[in-house]
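Thread: quick sanity check before group meeting

JM: Hey all, I'm pulling together slides for Thursday and realized we never actually wrote out the predicted structure for the chain we discussed last week. Dropping the sequence here so it's in one place. If anyone has concerns about the input, flag it before I start.
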Amino acid sequence: MLLEAAALDVGTFPPMAQYALGLDFGTNSVRALIVDCADGSELATGVAQYSSGDEGVITDPKDHNLARQNPLDYHASLDLAMQEALKVARATGDFDAAHIVGIGVDTTGSTPMPTMYDGFPVAMEEEFHDNTNAMAWLWKDHTAYAEAEEITDLARKQGRPYLAKCGGTYSSEWFWSKILRAARLEPILVEGPTDTWMELCDFIPGYLCLEEAGQVPRSVCAAGHKAMYSGEWGGLPDKDFLAALHPALAGLRDRLYEKAYPSDRKAGGLAQAHAEKWGLRTGTPVAVGILDAHAGAVGSGVGPGRLVKIIGTSTCDIMVASHVPDIPGVAGIVDGSVIPGMIGIEAGQSAVGDIFAWWSKVCGKSQEELAWDASRLRAGESGLIALDWNNGNRNVLADPLLSGLLVGQTLHTTAAEIYRALIEATAFGALKIIQRIEEHGVTIEDVVACGGIAEKSSMAMQIYADVLNRPIRLSRCAQAPALGAAIFGSVVGSVHADVQTAQAAMTGFKDVQYLPDPIAVTVYARLFELYEDLHDAFGLSDRFQVMKDLIAVQKEARNG
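JM (edit): ok, ran it. Output follows.
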């Protein structure tokens, strides 16, 4: 398929009537954001929750590693979010949906799903309607932890370069692990000659354009960070390597893609059916998809020397640089995955907001109550230290079988003290990531935060500033991933020549800035040493396998 660069002529519009649409497919909902391309100001937002499972996530009480989504929710929730956003926009009086010049899409990832070659989900087929293996394998599904270890071991044994750009360890959260697991659980989903697999960030642009799967340009962001794709070795892993994992994977490679593209490229034009339904122009340019964290970094003004922390249910740390060495323990180093022409760096933690929400649910107090009491504690006053591995460790250990730990409880320990210790633990985990990146020569000059936690918890942000010993600014847009997607929409819609130009016009920072407290900085430096002791003992030492042994005992007990 011929890809068109950002300079595509899409027509002439009055300067005050140029809008971009950002579609943000998150863990629990879809967000549609309409912004003015001139300055990034938000005209309207529409949000719609997924209807299946628990807040959109389909789980299994017998397997806490399972997290799937019903692909049909994406279609239904997109329509609802669009209707709401357009209704709000039209209420302004001078809005015309036909003046939306471009559409960008960001999604969770790695969230792959089996699709028919016409681009529609296999889960739409009656025989697979209730089959969780035929659904989208959500980013936080860890059922393929054994397959991830197998992929890592094979690449090392064969001396393949495929792990060099993903920190040296393949993750259970990622593309090939999940498909290998599916091939063993449900072979037909991988072996079917008319089927393929698509990342969610590729599936949505394909759905918007009603393109066949083979015609949808694939995202280099998802391909590089999640599927071991790199131009250095000719794209995806070769068929011999994949066949050694499972013969069906080698066959599937022929039904995937040979090249992946950055998100300043056009994936296609909006299909007539969608355009008529929403009042947009048929053929409105749709950008190649991107992962939500990377879009959030773009919407937060990421550039060389700036670390953007997207802090929500989990966190992603995103940077860009002109040159980056291979960094052990960092999730991804991919050319063009964030800003075209620059190397994107991704790291992060697999649970942050999820940990705080879990404790709130367990102790029976709202996070507002916990935060009020915890904010009155001084750094170190609780006498507690925790490890933030309640959903495994994404970086820098890359081990999904690690679990949470809390040390220092007494008969006087309160719920608020534990809540604060959990926040501190996630901040310590964030510092480990920063240290690893800087150890390999990448300079971090400033930190910008965005996402739900950054917006809602001033206490958490102050703790992060104290632990990191760095000022933290907040992205001006509370919906940074959707804004980042809209920025790509503005580029493929020819309003801005490139991503950096669009960022200069459409992004900014809030007035608030969190500055390190010197007293807290000193206390947290001491606590971080204790965190590192626990981190290395339970994460690196062969002598301390307690966490993994507990998982084995639990699995045996649950299986009767």
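AS: nice. The two ends are 53 Å apart (CA to CA). The longest strand covers residues 29-36.
JM: adding both to the slides.
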